Structure formats: C-alpha cells, structure tokens
Amino acid sequence: MFTTSGSRGLYKAPLSKGLLLVLSGLTVMLSLLPQHQHMFEYNLHDVSQQQQVWRLLCGRLACLDVKDSFCSGLLIYNFRIFERRFGSRKFASFLLGTWCLSALLDFLLAQAVFFLFDYEVEDLPAGPLAPVFSLFVPFYWSIPKVVVTQVLGHISITNKTLVYIVGLQLLTSSPFMWLLALSGLVSGALYHSNLLWVQKLLFVPAWLGFVARYLLEPVFSSSQPTNEAPLGMGATLEVQRQQRMDQLDQQLLLAQFNEARVNTRHTPQASLLQWTRLFPRLRRRGANRPPAEPGPQIQTQPSAQAPPLDNSVAEEQVAMLVEMGFSRTDALEALRASNNDINMATNFLLQH
User: How far apart are CA 164 and CA 170, in angstroms?
Assistant: First the structure.
C-alpha cells in the first residue's frame, strides 16, 4: 500500500513500533474507560489560565478519537522510513523538537485567531497530531516522487498520493485540526531547516539514546523478515506479496535515480544551491561497473587508483545507502564528500 517505505514491516524501526503500540493502546484504554478521558483533553484555557501545565503532556499524548488514532497510526507506519534512514536517535530528536515547537505555536496561533476573528480557541484535538503533521516536511523534500499509474490518462497517481490522502482525511476530522496541522508543518520546517539552530537546542542526548538502545529497543525491535522462501507450493501468499513489493520498491528507486541522473546530465538546472560545487569529487562519476582487471601490458598510474577506504565512513551508513539502491562506490564517495552527513549524501544521490 505504501510503496515509499517498503514492505518490511517495522524492521529497524523500534521507535515507530513503540509509538504505534502506545498510541493505539491508550486510545483503546480510554475508549473502555470514558470516565478518565477528561484527564487527556488538550485544553489551552486550562493550561494558560489555571496553570495546568501537565495537560501539555497528557493532552498531546493520546488520541481521544478513534479515527484520529487510526489515521495517525497509518502515517507513523509510513514515516518509519525516516527512522530507518537516519537512525532512531535522530528520528526521536526530530519528534521531540517538533513536539516542543508545536506546543509553543499552538498558543501563538490561538492568540492570532482571537486577535483576528475575536474567537477564543479553548479545546484542540488531543494526541501527538502536530508532530505527525511535521513529518510531512521531510516526506515532501526527501522522498522522491515516482509515478505509479494514471487515471483517465491525465491524473497521475504517485507513490506519495495515498499518504497525502490520509493526511487530508486527518485534517478534516475536527474543526480546529487545521491549527494543529499548521503548527506541525511550521515546526517541521523550522527543525528540518535548522533555523535558529534548533537542532542543537532540542535533541535527544546521547546517554538517553544509549539507555533506550539497551532497555527499550530489545522490547520493541522486530525480527528481520525472511525472503528466502521459495515461490512454489510451500510459500505463503504473504511471503510472495512481500517479495513482489520489495522488488517493486527497488525498481522504483532505481528508475527514479537513473532518470534524475539522465536529466541532470542533459538538462542542467540552475538553482541557488549548486551541488557540483559542494561535491567536486562526484562531478564526473563513471558508471557503476566493477573495475576491470589490468592486463600485463597496462600500467595503472598512481593518480588513477581508487582512494583507500576511509575508516571514518561508518559501514552502517554505507549499508543504508546501498539498501536504498545506490552502488557502494557512489555511497562511499558521497559520504566522504559530505563529511559523513547522510542527509546531504542521500539528497545528492537522489538528485544526481
């Protein structure tokens, strides 16, 4: 269904799995115990006038509406691709940063509505909705758009269409959901662009990530899916579907990567950010072919030899880029040129 993030379930996404379990578990518990729902209401008036600061945590922790919980769960399940790409700690830092920024923006937007329309906004939809909306920012900028099919010959259906439809459904579920959506998108843009160095101010400390890795990750981690089962009589339909989806995901990523490389080669685009200046070593990359063995009469010049493997390049980052469909040679060069910044290396490889 979500071709962008693959079909490997929640493998290498323990934080996303924990969020899904907590979000759905609290929603079910509050549905069975409605007498406790008032403790999880997101009331701005009680926070500002009665100094009930604890409502900022409880009111933004669990969804009281089952439909909001279902749509948020679908979006979190789709956005687990960012945890696989950047790691659980960086993904958690993004959620923490946007959660704090959106909490401040909620009050600013409520005051703006009161100033412009003379209407006081008191109650907002409960749940971690603003951080979920903030994930649309890296989803829009980082995930390539690949056309899957066309409807009526003119309307293109891409691998991102269904995600936007789910987000639109969540946006129209409550009267003031647009305020949380705007708060989440603005906070996501601020954190993604690192404006005012918010990424250095709001992040998950290394020691907390170390503790969570050894205490919580074993609880929420998922086993690696097995794709080696034969496609004969002994294979299940689920394994066959998973193998077909994995092959389709790899073909879509490779097709988009090759198309972007051809377009860049033939029709260079002028932009404010010139990638060829930031990556001079990747300006003229050859095809992804294994080096041919030199003959007895050919002597390799010392300057033409491949640079030795830099120990500072993390093998885990190289494996992540290779898993996305890029060659190992391009992944190593991109990581070296970007000083091991996997975000910049991924963006360059996707655009070239």
Answer: 10
